[in-house]
Amino acid sequence: MPSKFSDLPLSTSGPVECALTGSALLNDPYFNKGSAFTPEERAEFKLHGLLPPNVQTLDEQVKRAYQQYCSRKDDLAKNTFMTSMKEQNAVLYYRLIHDHLKEMFSIIYTPTEGDAIANYSRLFRRPEGCFLNVEDQDRIADDLNQFGEADEIDLIVVSDGEQILGIGDQGVGGILISVAKLVIYTLCAGIHPARTLPVVLDCGTNNEELLNDDLYLGLRRPRARGKEYDDFVDKFIRAARQKYPKAYIHFEDFGLHNARRILDKYTPQFACFNDDVQGTGCVTLAAIMAALKVADVKYEDLRIVLFGSGTAGTGIADQIKDAIAINTSRSKEEAGRQIWCIDKPGLLLKSKQKELTPAQVSYARDDSEWQGKPHHDLLSVVKEVKPHVLIGTSTRPGAFTKEVVQEMAAHVSRPIIFPLSNPTKLHEAKPSDLFEWTDGTCLVATGSPFAPVEHKGRQYDVSECNNSTTFPGIGLGAILSRARLVTPELLVAATNALAQQAPALDPKAKGSPQEVALLPDVTDVRDISVHIAKAVIRKAEAEGLAAQEGIPQDDGDLEEWIREQMWDPVYRPLKRVGLEQASSFARGEAGSASTKRPADYTESQKA
């Protein structure tokens, strides 16, 4: 039955207009169906002689592709195989991942994508995305012009490649984190892959290994800093906003000293987001929200110790502070005093303000509070604060010792402990140890997937704080509502929506709340994204930030409206149109994977 919203510009039902024929059609990743073209499509689009005669289903293609995938010798080879598939057939690529999500997530994203990025120049076959460099700043607008018209790009992910997935400065290879992030957006929230643009800002690199590699494809110079860097970022933002005024911009893996200040600069100007700062904070806050309900702790009473106060740590602190302020009558400054942050020098204190990053300053405590009290180590702070929640983003393995954990458990009935550092070998504690040391009373979430823990005949699920359950839905809601800004209120609404999906809060879930996960599983992420998008859209409307007209006011209609605009990895019928009336997408010119748009393409030529 057709949707009542099938006439929307972003509708994903019904036939797709296509002006390509023959080999040009087979070479377009968005239109190509390979062996699944129907007999009618083969005749209409001049494909006879270009394909084997047997017509197959998408399920049959997935079966064959999975067998090919499994034949690859290691994870990096599997990643490369998937990249090749994506360049040939977008539907098959996404459907294969969808059907094997648990298995393939670590291949297409962290940690294997980190290996692919580190080897970008050696594995390079063909470019995808937009490459901008600091030495050609006057060309930024022209370079962006090659990727579509003003209303053809909904989402831009941009990275400067300085702090990639825990492996540091990867220079121009940072384009792949932008590409990978957009894959997650499409997979988890149905953002149309042809309406996205991955960008890398090549500022040079301080990675000596890359600078000395004769195959390195990026600028061979030290990283730009200061005014040169800021001007480059600002020129990109201005050009992107002018060319694609409706696009939601996602900043990814910028360096420690740039990520937060760039986000703070542009957040009041347009809808933008930084997953390292905000996404990690939102998913962690959602797990905390669920845990607080299980542990029966009120926001007014909450005490949190954060061990590791870099980009991720302060981002988490910011989201918690906003939530406390919104859910109580307290100011943000007062809410922030319920959070104690520890970094390399120990507890953050105002006397050390010159050593702190801008993001850390607001969490520095008055020295007088700690006069005569030890505060240079985690155990001393835990003894004094008696926290309900202990969060680790320190990358210091084993930092949550038995003594620290049992000290915490001596003062609260349900210690909430989140060792979040990635990868697994850097976790502050193993979940099995936490349950053993607390006799099964702790509530745990981690930064990497862990198997359930057995303790005294009971099985405890271990939640994974996977950002992919969060940022895609936020982006989907912002894009569909055309939100002018992404405010703390929108993020807290999104976080609440995610927390409400926690199995631990589901009365129908098997097991006690302590045994069930604090966060939903990533395999349910598309439904989760719909719930988050609904919350974001409603809050954007309430705050006067939604620029999109015609948003349904009935909640059931709103869900149908959202789902109708989510791209699915299915083959839609093709409708042949002539070049003269074809859209850029129908001509095969849309999307960063397309190479058909002429470099000198202009609106006048289109007309």
Question: Outline of this structure?
Answer:
With 607 residues, the chain is α/β, with parallel strands linked by helices. The chain has 25 helices and 16 strands.
What's the end-to-end separation, in Å? Answer: 36 Å
Shape: globular
Q: Give me the side-by-side strand order of the main sheet.
A: 9-8-7-10-11-12-15
- The residue fraction in helices comes out at 40-55%
The oligomeric status of these chains comes to: single chain
Biggest sheet, open or closed, and with what strands and sense? 7 strands, mixed
Report strand %.
5-15%
Task: Give Rg in angstroms.
Answer: 25 Å
Mean pLDDT: 93
Q: What's the number of helices?
A: 25
* Secondary-structure class: alpha/beta
Task: Please give the CATH architecture of the domain at 277-471 and 504-532.
Answer: 3-Layer(aba) Sandwich
Named CATH topology of the domain at 277-471 and 504-532: Rossmann fold
CATH superfamily of the domain at 277-471 and 504-532: NAD(P)-binding Rossmann-like Domain
> Low-confidence parts lasting 5 or more residues at pLDDT below 50?
601-607
Question: Strand tally, please?
Answer: 16
* CATH top level label of the domain at 277-471 and 504-532: Alpha Beta
Biased composition (Basic and acidic residues): 597-607
Pfam families: malic, Malic_M
Domain Malic enzyme N-terminal: 86-267
Keywords: Metal-binding, NAD, Oxidoreductase
Task: Characterise the protein shown here.
The chain has 607 residues and is of the alpha/beta class. 40% of the residues lie in helices and 10% in strands. The chain has a domain at 277-471 and 504-532: NAD(P)-binding Rossmann-like Domain (Rossmann fold, 3-Layer(aba) Sandwich), CATH 3.40.50. Helix 4 crosses helix 7 (112-118), helix 22 runs antiparallel to helix 23 and helix 23 packs across helix 24. The radius of gyration is 25 Å and the shape is globular.
